[in-house]
Amino acid sequence: MTTRDTILELFKNRPDHFLSGAEVCRKLGISRTAVWKHISQLRDNGYEIEAIPSRGYRLLSLPDRLLPAEVTSGLQTRSVGCEVIYFDETDSTNAQARILADAGAREGTVVIADSQNGGKGRLGRSWFSPSGVNLYLSVILRPPISPRFATQLTFLSAVAVAQAIEATGSFLPQLKWPNDVLLNGRKVAGLLNELNAETEQIHYLVLGIGVNLNMRTEQFPSDLRTPATSLLLEEGKTVSRLKFTQALLRSLDQLYASYLSTGFLPLKQEWESRCNMIDQWVEVDYQSYQRVGQVSGVDESGALLLSLDGGITEKVLAGDVRLLSRGA
Ligand code: BTN
Description:
Elements: H1 3-13, H2 21-28, H3 32-44, E1 48-52, E2 56-61, H4 68-72, E3 83-90, H5 93-102, E4 109-116, E5 135-141, H6 152-168, E6 174-176, E7 180-183, E8 186-197, E9 202-211, H7 231-235, H8 241-262, H9 265-274, E10 281-286, E11 289-298, E12 304-307, E13 313-316, E14 320-323
Helix pairs in contact: 2-3, 6-8, 6-9
Bound molecules: biotin (BTN).
């Protein structure tokens, strides 16, 4: 814990109270000038701190930024969030997570950005990432599984996002294969997992998660492929980015621990119970592959199982899927 983190802990242990300069000096074994310097730095980082000469310092409000000290405060996870790296702006949290993972970052390291200027979506698309409103986060995992099963972790991200959304309000998110989270049929979150592996061993996996939290209608680009929404637009009130992020990290942590101990089946069931496509007729489109069929579920490699007319079942590995409004 840094000195700044310890000062924040002192504030948070006694909310609304003044903390005298002398008390901080004594508890931390530092000079008054050093205390003042730390308080100034906290203010520069968006913490609103009142200073009254005869009484000391009082924390008035926290910054609306997903700073590591805030995200990890009281998080109590086993692995996910053991380390949090924050950028006000970066190209892509996935790209940064890959650099950190290549350099040996620990499993569970999380990269968060307030905005991305090169946010990546699936199939080479971009992910619109304005500042101050949403969540852009990547997690480094090093699962001891065969690369053949790496796609299973996309389902883990999807279920974790759904659980975090469910914990936020009266929402019933739906999961759309392969990696969208929807609210009332509109996309509220997207997932992009990137793998670094040899034939038989995963070096690391980056779970990239983008959630539209407080974006307003006029902030969405007009040329989106899929109709999009945000939690603010659906619920009509602002969501705390910090609380949402912590809920998401806790879900990811729990699901990952249970995945490592009990395997994919419980996760697959959680995913399928929220999937908007089971037993539905859909159209799949991927480059020259086009099919119409009825969805029966996903298999252990994460492929969508599509029953075609004539009784054949095909495994779809990638593509855009559209729900058809009737039996085909
Ligand atoms: C998609 O639906 O196309 C996937 C979007 C994934 C976006 C997230 S935002 C955080 C992470 N960093 C990125 O560059 N992309 C993912």
